[in-house]
Amino acid sequence: FDGINKKLHDLHLLDTVVRDAVSTVAYKYIEQHIQNTCRGNFESRFLDSLEKWLTTTVMEWFRLLYKYDTGAETEGALKSLEDHLRHFLYDTYVMARVDQLFNIIIEFPESQAALEDLKDCLERTNLKSKVIHSLKSSMEKRLLHPGVETTQILTAYISAIKALRVLDPTGYILQLVCEPVCKYLRTREDTVRSIVSNLTDDSCAELEGELVKFTPIAVEDSCLSDDDDEDWQNWQPAPVGNEQVQVSKGARSSDIVSMLVNIYGSKKLFASEYQVLLANRLLSGSFADTEREVRYLECLKLRFGESQLHACEVMLRDLADSRRLNTHLASGETPGYTAGEVDVSAIVISAQFWPPFKDEKLALPPPVQGSLDRYTRAFEAIKGNRTLQWRPNLGQVTLEVDTGTRTLQLTVSPMHATLIYHFQEKARWTLDELSSVTQASATLVRRKLALWQGQGILWEESPGVFTLGTPGDAAGGSGIPPQPLELDEDEEEAPSAMASTQDQKESDLQIYWSYIVGMLTNLESLTLERIHTMLKMFAMQTPSTAELTAQELRHFLDGQVAKQKLLYSGGHYRL
């Protein structure tokens, strides 16, 4: 090898003969070395060691090849070659990481070392657009489809926010890559609920500590913001060649909660969802963990403002007042009050500050209703001119079920307790009889009976006929075999006591409709924009009504036109 090189050098043919061949070998060697060294390992930094390897191994080979040519021209050529190979190494490292970038983001912060190497390489190459296109495509293919749960999409989105800020502090990559994710999340009905639930859940590692960062949320009406002046010390220029993309303040900020809220651009929407979540938590037991809820509420007030969460303060105050009332009644100090057959511990709520409840009927057994009536009279004696309106379908019942062979201690819903109570009167009931005595639908009754079937306390003797015991207790063991317990969503989790988002939306639309009728009666005809502006001024200022976008208003008004309640002509609506 050395002898051939010397002869080629003497003939002035060395560079002509070997340049292309050795360059091709060097490129392949670099690619192979990077793949073998880095692929699948995101927890260590490799760029410094790769640069050192390039200098001590690859370039030493080239210096050995050209050792007989010691002129300044050769030294200059070798220096130029080293710069070229170093740039090729950066390009190759970026391309090796591009296909793995989605996994790198999901594994953040363990993968921070790989992101820091990639950041250094991107600053020295022109592959940022390639990285953006590849990552954007991966996010869309692997996240944005019905097979992925909303919580999983949010987890990946939060990881992307954290990881891409390491990769690109300007927020340029983050904004372009995550824009489709934000648009897709807006189409999911449970996005707001999932965000609020995760924010106020101690087990959510992705948002741990984010809520306690006391940064007020600034909702962005547009990505074109003049707020750069407020943070001029941390300002960074936009990437060269991409000046046409205006990076939003949210993409540059370090506040993840603000970015989650800005998916919808409405603090009121999130505050309303938290109110529903809080209501369900407070009604899920006799007394919830109020200290934890107060702590969350104080953090949220710093984020969303006190006015948005005033109703939640009242809800927590209702719970504290109810605790004192129950303690007072249980002490026996209330004249004329004695507990009935059933011990009652009530949560007395200020209805106008709570979200709407589900409208479900339930006729309670006479002893239970009698205990509630006693409680009402005692409350009226204490509070003077105030009384109670009971919602018998809400709350929890702690009971003991004795089947003769075993005793069960259970905490169930009032509907479950009412159904099993009636089997004390007689051992066999039809579905229609139970529906009549409880004033609930047969469908709901059958669904609730599934719990007692699953516990082996009831069985379906024949279609629509339920009996105490198990099939083996009956003569000959005939009847419908017990079905495996398949709990629906209402049974697997604590059923929501509040009206669904869709039901609340319909209720709000009826309120808006009364405003619209009044406007059109007085002003004869109005454009969509004028109606929306007036609704924002007068109807959307109350805490109990949700915001209505112009698109939602157009859809609602078009529906009223289809029902022939409105006329639409020349861009104007009229009665």
Automatic annotation (TrEMBL):
Classification lineage: Eukaryota, Metazoa, Ecdysozoa, Arthropoda, Chelicerata
Record family assignment: Belongs to the cullin family.
PANTHER family: ANAPHASE-PROMOTING COMPLEX SUBUNIT 2
Superkingdom to which the source organism belongs: Eukaryota
Annotated region (Disordered), positions in chain: 470-501
SMART domains on file: APC2, CULLIN
Species assigned in the record: Amblyomma aureolatum
GO MF terms, alphabetically ordered: ubiquitin protein ligase binding
Domain Cullin family profile: start-end pairs: 257-453
Protein name (Swiss-Prot/TrEMBL): Anaphase-promoting complex subunit 2
Keyword terms: Cell cycle, Cell division, Mitosis, Ubl conjugation pathway
Pfam families assigned to the protein according to its UniProt record, in alphabetical order: ANAPC2, Cullin_AB, TPR_ANAPC2
UniProt record, GO biological process: cell division; metaphase/anaphase transition of mitotic cell cycle; protein K11-linked ubiquitination; ubiquitin-dependent protein catabolic process
GO cellular component terms attached to this protein's record: anaphase-promoting complex
PROSITE patterns: CULLIN_2
